[in-house]
Amino acid sequence: MKINHKHYIITMIAVLFLGSCKKEGEFLTRPIKAIRPFNMTGYAIGDALELYFDDVKIRDYYGKISLGTVSPQLAFENDVTIMQLRKKSTGEVVYEQKFNIADAKNEVPKFYFNGTSIAKSYTYPKPQGKDYLVNFYFDGPKDLGPVDVQMEVLEYYYDNNNNLVVVNITGFPIATEIAIGKWSEYFKIQPPPVMLPTQPGTDFYPLITLKSSKTKKYLLSGDVVENALQIELPDQWTSSGKTQSIHIQTKIADNKALYFELNDLVQVFP
């Protein structure tokens, strides 16, 4: 029995009970006793989670889990429905919750799945003083190998046509040989150093970029700007510290080009 994911997002599992089953070529509409509000938020990393209701698979989740801007509804055919989250690679049930038709609201407590087990939250160290701490979880093709993270300071100006012209790039290593599919240790990011221009009329701007540890080339096609990660950096006037836990996923756009999707788990679990 195939599940229409678009309908699922709008009405949750109502599609399981409305016209989704056949008997002798005829659609069967089973009665729904009630429809109740439903919500689920969390984060999955290391392995995908499969969402099941009453042993019927609805969809997979990986990365940030949210039901979006719609108001999802949970359809009850019986007085109780059972939701399970199963580990995709093994089918192991890592979380189960029963929902009752008598409850006005049905909500899954916010959770973090680390690829093995469910926890209430993602935990991270609090920064000390002005320290900027960051760790990385890189999801990419297995044949890519480890990656390097560096701060690259651009010396640039804008020409008469308002085009960016990069005069010079100075790199400062942050982390090397970050393995695919596991959290790195935490690294301390220093403010960009004060640099002297190589020619009049230029400014400086720091970026965080990824390169292959093997080839030392950018992972994405394009220049340094197109390979930049959206990570907050300290400066000379920073007065308080910050922790960032960056999950980086490489994805394929419609034009077959790779791009990065980033989530800071500290922002997901403040």
Give a quick summary of the entry:
This protein has 3 helices and 17 strands. It has helices at 5-11, 14-17, 265-268, and strands spanning 18-23, 26-29, 34-53, 56-65, 73-76, 80-87, 93-100, 106-113, 118-119, 132-139, 147-158, 164-178, 187-189, 203-212, 228-229, 242-252, 258-264. The longest helix is centred in the first third of the chain and has 7 residues, at 5-11.
Number of strands: 17
Structural class comes to mainly beta
How much of the sequence is in beta strands? Answer: over 45%
User: What best-fitting shape do the alpha-carbon axes yield?
Assistant: elongated
Radius of gyration: 24 Å
Instruction: Give the % helix.
Output: under 10%
Report the span from N to C terminus: 39 Å
Regions with little confidence, pLDDT below 50 for 5+ residues:
1-28
Number of separate helices: 3
Q: Multimeric state of these chains?
A: single chain
Query: Sheet bearing the most strands, described?
Result: 7 strands, mixed
Order of helices and strands: HHEEEEEEEEEEEEEEEEEH
How many structural domains can be distinguished in the coordinates? 2
Averaged pLDDT, please? 87
What does this protein structure show overall?
The structure is a single chain. With 270 residues, the chain is mostly beta strands. It folds into 2 domains: 5-119, Immunoglobulin-like (Sandwich), CATH 2.60.40; 132-268. Helix content is 6%, strand content 51%. The protein has 3 helices and 17 strands. It has helices at residues 5-11, 14-17, 265-268; strands at 18-23, 26-29, 34-53, 56-65, 73-76, 80-87, 93-100, 106-113, 118-119, 132-139, 147-158, 164-178, 187-189, 203-212, 228-229, 242-252, 258-264. Strands 3, 4, 5, 6, 7, 8 and 9 form a 7-stranded mixed beta sheet that branches. A hairpin with a 5-residue loop joins strand 6 (80-87) and strand 7 (93-100). The protein is elongated, with a radius of gyration of 24 Å. Residues 1-28 have low confidence and may be disordered.
